[in-house]
Design a protein that fits this description.
Length: about 450
């Protein structure tokens, strides 16, 4: 196991040293550098899944093999953790069931994508509640350029349950490795929030990293080489989930997959976001806090959280403060968060509104960036709109509340006429631009259509 001075990852059952590895080295580059060349680089930006590997992550009753994009996860953030690559699943003489099905059903031709596919498939193979089914969304983040997807789908759907004596199945009965604090040149993984807050106050040059799905792209494609990195992805205070009758508090370092599991359907609008947010592979690393911290005008969580009247909880060495998500963004990729503050959690008040929807308009239905995103929450009492909250993404330099449209709905009968009038107002909200994703006119039209669609769905 790793220590403060000797970081290491257990790969395929064997401890492998991380000594001398810079903070920006991805798990993929590190694995390939130590001779484990199964995982491939196809894109280096989370789009193809050729780099997929398995990490043992915490689960309620032990551990869970979780597939992640190794090209985006910094190797040092996995200090003390357990990783399985395609080499650790099986060997040419003793193929893993996933590898055997892929080979026998013609799921592999040039083979470049295959190690990534088998790791994503293995994560689903070992999912405890899978039964005999196979959720094909588990491989939605993996691309194949030669085989075609039918044989791969056939291989996935042919998989039975793992045998009881399968060693990777047996491993899941024990807890995932606890996070270990790490301190090496240029990189720190603090043990707790207090230490993290002291570090970010003392080191204004610190770059905070959580799941790495945004930061990894900066490193791989835009050459980011920060002088000091502070990893917050395993901080226990950022990974809590609490619920009472007044509301839910979702830890900032929970991944979207973990938040989805913890919420367990309590906030239908967020379930719609999760389904449309990137791929399962990305959602297994991408965190709630990371999505808000990037302050992207096309980030998916902000419009939904605005509609839910949620608050961002910011922590600093001086204590916590809460800011409504609607007041959090101040300009293009700017927020009220000070450099010495971390996002600790997001608070969603309960009960949630009776009518809600999240509409993401993108070029592809799944695994694409929004052109426009709309979160709507409407409470109707005795046939009258008692409250309306609408959050918009992709129509201004920041995510925005559609306040004029909310005013056009509130206090009016919940009727087709009210909705049609409000849809016209919504078409004029924000200051949409023409860009390579969509024209301004298209974006404006989609806003109005979103409300009309909600009415049709709710009626
Ligand atoms: C292929 C691909 C598809 C994507 N699809 C979508 C999509 O559909 N919708 C969408 O909204 N986004 C998408 N993204 C963007 C990205 O996945 C999300 O923004 C994600 O939530 C970022 O979280 P992270 O933990 O990976 O952030 P990181 O990359 O670790 O960090 C991002 C930024 O947030 C800061 N940060 C992280 N955590 C904290 C914290 N607790 N406190 C303060 N600052 C913090 C970091 O300093 C950094 O500046 C996609 C990315 C990729 C690569
Ligand atoms: S190399 Fe394409 S997702 Fe990692
Ligand atoms: S088998 Fe060639 S890319 Fe998939």
């Amino acid at each position: 196991m790793a220590s403060m001075s000797d970081p290491a990852i257990t790969v395929n059952g064997e401890p492998r040293s991380l000594a001398g590895v810079p903070a920006w080295t991805s798990t993929l580059d590190w694995l390939r550098g130590i001779g484990l060349t199964g995982a491939k680089e196809g894109c280096a930006e989370g789009e193809c899944g050729a780099c997929s590997v398995l990490v043992a992550r915490p689960a309620a009753d032990g551990a869970r093999w979780t597939a992640v994009n190794a090209c985006l996860v910094p190797a040092l953030t996995l200090d003390g953790q357990e990783v399985v690559t395609s080499e650790g699943l099986g060997t040419p003489d003793a193929l893993h069931p996933v590898q055997r099905e892929m080979a026998e059903r013609g799921g592999s031709q040039c083979g470049y994508c295959t190690p990534g596919f088998v790791c994503s498939m293995a994560a689903e193979y070992y999912r405890p509640s899978r039964g005999d089914g196979f959720d094909l969304h588990a491989i939605a983040g993996n691309l194949c350029r030669c085989t075609g997807y039918r044989p791969i789908k056939d291989a996935a759907e042919a998989l039975g349950a793992p045998p009881a004596d399968d060693p990777l199945l047996a491993r899941l009965r024990d807890p995932a490795p606890a996070p270990v604090p790490t301190r090496v040149d240029g990189f720190a993984r603090p043990a707790d929030l207090a230490e993290a807050l002291t570090l970010v106050r003392e080191r204004p040059d610190a770059t905070v990293v959580a799941g790495g799905t945004d930061w990894g792209v900066e490193v791989n494609l835009r050459g980011a080489r920060p002088s000091y990195v502070v990893a917050v992805d395993r901080l226990p205070e950022l990974r809590a989930f609490t619920a009472d009758e007044r509301g839910l508090e979702i830890g900032a370092a929970l991944t979207l997959s973990e938040a989805e599991a913890a919420l367990d359907g309590r906030v239908p609008m967020l379930d719609e976001v999760f389904d449309l947010f990137a791929s399962r592979l990305i959602r297994n690393s991408a965190t709630i806090g990371g999505n808000l911290a990037t302050a992207s005008p096309i980030g998916d969580l902000a419009p939904a959280l605005m509609a839910l009247d949620a608050e961002v909880v910011l922590a600093s060495a001086d204590g916590d403060r809460s800011v409504p998500v609607a007041d959090y963004f101040t300009g293009y990729r700017e927020t009220v968060r000070r450099p010495d503050e971390l996002i600790r959690a997001v608070r969603v008040p309960l009960p949630v509104a009776g009518i809600s929807a999240f509409h993401k308009i993108a070029k592809r239905r799944f695994d694409d960036i929004s052109s426009v995103a709309v979160g709507v929450a409407i409470e109707v009492t005795d046939g009258v709109v008692a409250a309306a909250r609408i959050g918009l993404g992709g129509v201004a330099a920041t995510p925005v509340r559609a306040r004029a449209t909310e005013a056009a709905l509130e206090g009016r009968p919940w009727s087709g006429e009210t909705v049609r009038t409000a849809a016209e107002v919504l078409r004029g909200e924000g200051t949409p631009m023409d860009d390579h994703r969509a024209s301004a006119a298209y974006r404006a039209a989609m806003l109005g259509n979103s409300l009309l669609r909600l009415w049709e769905e709710a009626a």
